[in-house]
Amino acid sequence: MVRLERSTVNGIVSGFYPTIVRGNGVGYASGMGRAAGYLLAAKLPLEAVLASIAAPYIVVAGVCLALDRPQRRMAANAESPVTSDIAAVPAPLRSAT
């Protein structure tokens, strides 16, 4: 019975992911399901289990936001006009220009 349920869940979950990342998505979903099963079997409260499953998503979202800021700054600097200030160029590079 457990095998039938697992294959059904894998079939349902695979519909959520595009073909190129389907293996990763199904594997991650299965892994999270197993982790939740172990945590529930250890008699952890449901809130703690859900928080432990949500924690990686929160960390990844924070990293994505942190990486987006420098990217936006670089894009804004690339669009601004370049000023030719020779004093701002380090001395070893001045001779090459």
Task: Describe what you observe in this structure.
The model has no long low-confidence stretch (mean pLDDT 77). The chain has 97 residues and is an all-alpha fold. It has 4 helices and no strands. Helix 2 packs antiparallel against helix 3. The protein has one domain.
What attributes characterize this protein structure?
single chain; about 100 residues; mainly alpha
In short:
With 97 residues, the protein is mainly alpha-helical. It has helices at 2-14, 22-41, 46-79, 91-94.
State the major sheet: none
Number of discrete domains? 1
Radius of gyration: 24 Å
Enumerate the spans where pLDDT stays under 50 for 5 or more consecutive residues. Answer: none
Q: What proportion strand?
A: under 5%
Structural class of the helices, strands and pairings? mainly alpha
Which series of helices and strands comes N to C? HHHH
Shape descriptor reads elongated
Give the distance, in angstroms, between the N- and C-terminal Cα atoms: 73 Å
Q: Helical proportion?
A: over 70%
Q: How many strand elements?
A: 0
Tally of separate helices: 4
The averaged pLDDT comes out at: 77
Helix/strand layout:
Layout: H1 2-14, H2 22-41, H3 46-79, H4 91-94
Helix pairs in contact: 2-3
